[in-house]
Backbone:
């Protein structure tokens, strides 16, 4: 079982999937959107991803995460009935670990149903079964102030789009430029992230 990989990013797709070159071997990993924006490269340009190895009779799939807390959240998600890896990755792409923990704690059904592939029944099951099961360590609490109060965050749609763009290698200023050009549309959690990302990429290509 592979638990950790360190290497250089050889390819990064719009859906978040990554090919990591580790000593000349390319490992293909599915990852939440914005993952590469949450990891730091070393002096050689290498990044380290925490890995979940998912084994089935007909396939072996690798899933990569920015830190151990994010991987733990993924494992908590796939332990919920009717939630597979694809849905878990979509959830963490739209709601990074600390944000997801706040959504579960506040029982924010609307934030969960705004994620592509999450209906009301699955959202309700997540709220019920993930209570007190998500990581609460330093990495998962990074959005809190030193005094423990949560920082005021950007609207969910805008936040997930910025995370996805920076994860693809765009500078924060470039991401902010695209978001500003998209106006209120970029701020809506109801708009699928894939559509927002395509629109943002078109703007940045001009």
Residues:
């Amino acid at each position: 079982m592979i638990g950790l990989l360190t290497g250089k990013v050889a390819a990064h797709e719009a859906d978040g999937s990554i090919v990591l070159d580790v000593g000349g071997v390319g490992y293909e990993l599915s990852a939440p959107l914005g993952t590469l924006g949450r990891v730091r490269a070393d002096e050689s340009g290498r990044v380290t991803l925490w890995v979940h190895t998912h084994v089935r009779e007909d396939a072996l799939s690798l899933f990569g995460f920015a830190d151990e807390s994010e991987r733990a959240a993924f494992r908590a998600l796939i332990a919920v009935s009717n939630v597979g890896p694809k849905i878990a990755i979509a959830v963490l792409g739209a709601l990074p670990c600390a944000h997801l923990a706040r959504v579960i704690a506040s029982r924010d059904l609307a934030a969960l149903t705004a994620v592509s592939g999450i209906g009301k029944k699955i959202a309700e099951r997540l709220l019920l079964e993930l209570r007190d099961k998500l990581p609460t360590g330093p990495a998962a609490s990074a959005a809190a102030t030193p005094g423990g109060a949560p920082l005021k965050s950007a609207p969910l749609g805008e936040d997930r789009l910025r995370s996805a763009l920076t994860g693809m290698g765009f500078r924060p200023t470039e991401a902010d430029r695209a978001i500003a050009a998209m106006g209120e549309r970029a701020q809506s959690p109801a708009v699928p992230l894939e559509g927002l990302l395509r629109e943002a990429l078109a703007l940045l290509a001009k």
